[in-house]
Design goal:
binds protoporphyrin IX containing FE; alpha+beta; three-stranded antiparallel sheet; single chain; five-stranded mixed sheet; Cyt_P450_E_grp-IV; disordered N terminus; 14 strands; Cytochrome p450; heme binding
Length: 532
């Protein structure tokens, strides 16, 4: 997503120049240091050191990972026979594991050895992209209250927010649709920007409450923050360690969104801390139901978080959630456009009493649940899951070794496309995850199902479905994410018959292990005509 936008906005030149510098300084660095150190007795007939050639080949493949990551991971998986295999990127050695035993060993490893936080820190470079947030590599150093804040409190609050989210998403959708241009007699809607706005609005309400989500400047910065974080973090990752901090600091200062959202949230977090203190002293204070409040309340009692720490945490959660929800919804919308034959059943479900039930507990709508799950299965945004960086050396029981800095991951996309996990894995069956009896009761047909597929739900976490991660660190925001995605996609289904302006045009762009929907993809959203 961001990479395409980068081509047309002011971050583009920063990123492009950064990438060129990174390639130029990285290749000679490995050439001189590593090749020179090991080049005894290794000359080819032409006089070129053999090890230098091997090294250049390895580095070339590592750089290719940036533009061909999903295929390289798939290729390794196809050859691996479920055994661990390694893949290199310019800045990483990844060890891919897919067997249950390995995944259990990852989950059992202490946070001081295999760290999700360290991997995320390398990915996002928060020190430069998130107003100086330099989180600890070790999970839990400052408490893991955020897990309860998202997994329990945000989930429990769904009945409160879902009706509000539906109403705001519906009116924003109408507004945006009305503003889209008519080209060749057809109103064309740019899907990705539209979905980014809808996701940002929805998440802003749930995370920050009404106050901030009505602030247009804040919302603009909060959306720009996603693209700017991706671009800057990527560039810093590709630079040699010796110059990355200097370049990171200089460019971080140029990207304003991080400062703007930090500045807007700090007074609110300070006010909440003041109210907390007032309450402690026995005063009556207003009650708030949003993530700012829950993050503050679930911080360790012994070491309460400062306003700065609360805001940093929210910035990280904001980035992670908006980015992946936007891209997942975008792919689900592509699938809705490509498979319009599902619209009638989905609409019937959304128009039934089941919708009111869904808004009461955030669960249900099995047809929509399955449709989104099938879309995320065939077109996952990510090709790897369960990222853990070794902050101490680690050896699996079969001898597979991780040195400090290596990552262990699971080959998410390849597993989702593997017939042993999902029968007829390469074909789209929108209702394959629905229980056959439920499908029969709701649609009086077997359309979209697959006899050989076990029923399951979008929010499951198991050996077939690593989309939310695995084990004890599986995504705590998944119940909220699933309900919010159903709310947004549900509004599209109810309002429009959707199709793509050009089905033959490329809809993806690949970078590292991600596949992003292109921002230029346009849809024709034709208002649904009510049947008389
Ligand atoms: C489609 C949407 C989403 C997807 C696919 C997703 C996926 C993931 C994945 C793969 C992980 C890593 C788990 C692991 O490595 O084992 C994760 C962690 C996390 N996610 Fe999500 N996520 C989504 C939405 C959200 C939302 C909406 C929130 C917040 C409300 C959220 C908050 C978090 C947090 C805080 C963690 C870190 C957990 C920890 O450190 O224990 N995610 N997510």
């Amino acid at each position: 997503m961001a990479l395409l936008v980068l081509l047309v906005n002011d971050v583009s030149s920063v990123f492009l120049y950064g990438l060129i510098i990174a390639v130029m300084v990285s290749l000679p660095r490995y050439w001189l240091v590593s090749a020179g150190a090991e080049s005894k007795n290794s000359y080819t007939i032409t006089g070129i050191p053999q090890q230098l050639l091997t090294l250049l080949k390895t580095r070339w493949r590592a750089w290719l990972f940036l533009i061909n990551g999903p295929a390289i991971i798939q290729n390794g998986y196809d050859k691996s026979n479920e055994q661990p295999y390694e893949v290199f990127s310019p800045d990483n050695r990844y060890v891919f594991v897919s067997k249950d035993e390995h995944i259990m060993e990852i989950d059992a490893a202490p946070d001081t050895v295999l760290s999700l936080q360290a991997a995320s820190k390398q990915m996002l470079q928060p020190k430069y992209t998130m107003a100086g947030f330099n989180w600890f590599d070790r999970r839990g150093t400052e408490g893991i209250g955020f897990v309860r804040a998202l997994r329990t409190l945000l989930t429990n609050n769904l009945p409160e927010v879902l009706p509000e989210l539906r109403i705001s998403a519906s009116s924003l959708m109408d507004e945006m649709h009305a503003s889209h241009p008519v080209v060749n007699d057809v109103k064309q809607s740019p899907l990705l920007p539209m979905i980014l706005h809808l996701t940002a609005l929805t998440n802003a309400r749930a995370f920050f409450g009404q106050e901030l989500c009505r602030n247009e400047d804040f919302m603009r910065s909060a959306m720009n923050f996603i693209e700017q974080t991706l671009a800057l973090a990527e560039m810093i990752r590709l630079l040699p360690n010796s110059i990355a901090p200097m370049v990171g600091r200089a460019l971080g200062k140029k990207l304003r969104s991080q400062k703007e959202i930090y500045k807007a949230m700090i007074p609110i977090a300070e006010e909440r801390l003041r109210l907390k203190e007032q309450k402690r002293l026995g005063h009556e204070v207003p009650v708030h139901h949003d993530c700012i409040q829950w993050i503050m309340e679930t911080a360790p009692r012994a070491q309460p978080w400062s306003a700065d720490r609360i805001v940093h945490e929210l910035m990280a959660i904001w980035f992670g959630s908006v980015h992946v929800m936007t891209t997942t919804i975008a792919f689900a919308m592509h699938d809705l456009c490509l498979h319009p034959e599902y619209a009638a059943s989905l609409r019937a479900e959304l128009n039934s009493e089941a919708y009111a039930e869904f808004e009461k507990n955030g669960k249900g709508l099995p047809l929509l649940d399955s449709f989104i799950k099938e879309s995320a299965r065939l077109t996952p945004v990510e090709s790897m899951s369960t990222r853990r960086q070794a902050i101490q050396p680690f050896t699996f029981s079969d001898g597979t070794h991780l040195a400090i800095g290596d990552w262990v991951v699971t080959p998410l996309r390849a597993m989702l496309h593997d017939d042993t996990h999902f029968p007829s894995a390469s074909s789209f069956h929108g209702f394959r995850h629905v229980h056959p009896q439920v499908l029969e009761n709701l649609t009086h047909s077997k359309f979209g199902s697959l006899d050989t597929q076990e029923p399951s739900q979008l929010t499951d976490v198991n050996k077939h479905w690593h989309v939310w991660g695995t084990g004890r660190m599986a995504c705590p925001g998944r119940y909220y994410a699933a309900a919010a995605m159903k709310t947004i996609i549900g509004q599209f289904v109810l309002k429009y018959d959707s199709s793509l302006v050009d089905e033959t045009e490329s809809r993806f762009i690949s970078w590292r292990s991600f596949i992003y929907p292109r921002s230029r993809t346009k849809a024709v959203l034709k208002p649904v005509v009510a049947k008389s």
